[in-house]
Known about the structure:
The chain has helices spanning 17-26, 47-50, 68-85, and strands at residues 10-13, 31-34, 42-43. The protein has a three-stranded parallel sheet, with helices on one face. It folds into two domains: 1-44, no CATH class; 47-86. β1 (10-13), α1 and β2 form a beta-alpha-beta unit. By secondary structure, it is of the alpha/beta class.
Amino acid sequence: xxxxxxxxxxxxxxxxxxxxxxxxxxxxxxxxxxxxxxxxxxxxxxxxxxxxxxxxxxxxxxxxxxxxxxxxxxxxxxxxxxxxxx
Length: 86
């Protein structure tokens, strides 16, 4: 139905991987997965999630590769200390 309506792709966000695989196999247009397993035609991962910019909210399907939020806090504290110190 979506292909007939002119869709050029479908985004599957937090769809069970088995379901995403079935959808990907059933339609001719690309599926783009966001936390929907490896069988989608493409994958999206939000940079903020990947680098740990917001540690108070990390989607369950993300494994952050860095803790940029903590590095930013440390840099800001160092700047404040240096500025106040002289």
